[in-house]
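pls design
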């Protein structure tokens, strides 16, 4: 009798090559994204703002956008990845239509391209950096994005978690790309450098502006900022803005501090922005006496992080009438005795410009929290979703792809904020997929009602049930006939 092989040297089964005949899926939980997409009202917003269809047959814009959002939520990086779930009968039945082929997705994205806008870009000899205006369909997507933000805020209110404070964190990020139209960015590679604005308390991207890679972040940051505040719901009662030195720009500072902001819904905008340390500001920082520096904390290596008020008034090219002087708060990093920074000095100076009268420690620490919001969003969009993979050489097509990545991010953020436990709300996309997306399930029919049955533990099912409860949506029994193919 032959000796039995150890368990780790064998598998106790054979692979059956015949596919399952049932309507099953390894990521049936992705239908939670579809439910949230529809309950938030994206289909109605898309129908109201996006008018691209030239004929009634085929997929609607809402179906195409929903399919792209699902593709990115599941983990797809490009339109061709939609082939991975085209034969998923569980998703087909759950969506009510068979997802489009990659060619249909690409043809849809191409409708956002406007060659006349790209032609406005001057030659590099005439102008190094130029912000290409958004095409009309891309502008329409911004209206859809803003409408989705307001509806999510309404859902928070319905769940008695009303978001009354809105802090906008704004920053640009580099997206590497090797297509022939991508331009060189400041790090030496080629790609794009979009500007994003995030509502920190709700973890929602409220505005973005797609830009060429050679456009510096300091070039016209006001346009994205204005879109961000326009997207906020009227229920917001306090408004704030945080930015790094790229936002230290005269027009933006004057707009944020303008008297008319106080008459808008939400009231005046309190802000804190990293100031560019000019020669004059550096001299003012160095002139602060040692006894006026207050220690905030001591780093592990003994470096002291300190703050102090700084008497400084910048020389402006022009200034609004009745403009009030802004406050400058200095930050000093002081090395312990015997230690030096790389440049050979024992101290480094920075500054924050603000219109807030908060105590210095509170202001500096609040301003530093920006890195935990906007940088997290950049990372999730590029590494957790598909924003790092630009699908086209056309500028507006890539701008659209980024906006749909943002839509997928906002839907996931809304599900986490409204349906997950407090311990799970900080889950990144990789864990989010394990918690709710990559859940095996099967469609079955009971008394003529189509139902989704999950192969999951009770906590996962409860998590999905919470999505169904929060994102209320009508349910209609479907017939047993095969679903028609669109197109």
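designed seq:
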């Amino acid at each position: 009798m032959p000796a039995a092989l150890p368990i780790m040297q064998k598998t106790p089964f054979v692979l059956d090559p015949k596919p399952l005949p049932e309507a099953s899926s390894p990521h049936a939980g992705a239908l939670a994204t579809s439910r949230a997409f529809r309950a938030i009202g994206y289909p109605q917003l898309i129908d109201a703002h996006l008018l691209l269809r030239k004929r009634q047959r085929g997929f609607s814009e809402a179906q195409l956008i929903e399919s792209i959002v699902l593709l990115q939520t599941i983990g797809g990086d490009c339109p061709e990845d939609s082939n991975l779930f085209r034969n998923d009968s569980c998703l087909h039945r759950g969506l009510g239509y068979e997802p489009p082929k990659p060619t249909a997705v690409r043809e849809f994205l191409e409708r956002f391209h406007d060659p006349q806008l790209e032609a406005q870009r001057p030659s590099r000899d005439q102008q190094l950096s130029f912000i290409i205006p958004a095409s009309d369909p891309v502008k329409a997507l911004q209206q859809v994005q803003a409408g989705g933000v307001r509806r999510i805020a309404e859902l928070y209110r319905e769940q008695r978690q009303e978001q009354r404070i809105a802090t906008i964190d704004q920053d640009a990020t580099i997206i590497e790309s090797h297509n022939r139209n991508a331009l060189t960015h400041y790090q030496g590679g080629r790609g794009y450098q979009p500007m994003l604005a995030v509502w920190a308390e709700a973890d929602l991207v409220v505005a973005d502006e797609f830009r060429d890679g050679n456009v510096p972040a300091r070039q016209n940051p006001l346009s994205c900022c204005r879109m961000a505040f326009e997207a906020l719901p009227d229920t917001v009662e306090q408004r704030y803005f945080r930015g790094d030195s790229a936002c230290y720009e005269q027009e933006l500072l004057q707009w944020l501090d303008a008297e008319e902001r106080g008459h808008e819904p939400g009231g005046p905008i309190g802000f804190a922005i990293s100031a560019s340390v000019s020669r004059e500001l550096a001299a003012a920082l160095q002139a602060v006496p040692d006894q006026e520096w207050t220690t905030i904390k001591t780093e592990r290596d003994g470096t002291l992080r300190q703050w102090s008020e700084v008497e400084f008034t910048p020389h402006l090219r022009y200034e609004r009438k009745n403009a009030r002087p802004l406050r400058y708060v200095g930050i000093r990093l002081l090395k312990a005795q015997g230690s030096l920074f790389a440049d050979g000095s024992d101290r480094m100076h920075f500054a924050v410009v603000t219109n807030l009268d908060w105590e210095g420690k509170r202001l500096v620490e609040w301003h530093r929290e920006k890195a935990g919001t906007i940088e997290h969003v950049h990372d999730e969009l590029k590494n957790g979703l598909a924003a790092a993979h630009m699908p086209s050489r056309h500028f507006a097509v890539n701008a659209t792809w980024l906006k749909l990545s943002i839509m997928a991010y906002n839907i996931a953020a809304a599900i986490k904020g409204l349906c997950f436990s407090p311990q799970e709300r900080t889950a990144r996309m990789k864990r989010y997929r394990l918690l709710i997306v990559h859940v095996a399930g099967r469609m079955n029919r009971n008394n003529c009602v189509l139902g989704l049955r999950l192969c999951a533990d009770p906590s996962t099912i409860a998590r999905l049930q919470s999505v169904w409860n929060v994102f209320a949506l009508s349910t209609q029994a479907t017939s047993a006939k095969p679903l028609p193919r669109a197109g």
